[in-house]
């Protein structure tokens, strides 16, 4: 939350479908999310990006983050606009 990048850790979860990867990821997210100023959980990224496109995923992510900052109505015209 306070120190940008200090102690940054990455956790990869992989396995066959139906093994509970999303359930585990959601549990970890729910446990650690309160430690951050803003947070967002994206489910089924591969499926949603194939159906709705990367811009939609970026809008969902940025809107989820913006909720904590009281911002609304986020619209992106292109993928490059969603890259910070």
UniProtKB/TrEMBL annotation:
This is Disease resistance protein. Residues 7-62 form the NB-ARC domain. InterPro entries: Disease_R_plants, NB-ARC, P-loop_NTPase. One of its GO terms (molecular function) is ADP binding. It comes from Trifolium medium. One of its GO terms (biological process) is defense response. PANTHER family: DISEASE RESISTANCE PROTEIN (TIR-NBS-LRR CLASS), LEUCINE-RICH REPEAT-CONTAINING PROTEIN. Gene3D superfamilies: P-loop containing nucleotide triphosphate hydrolases.
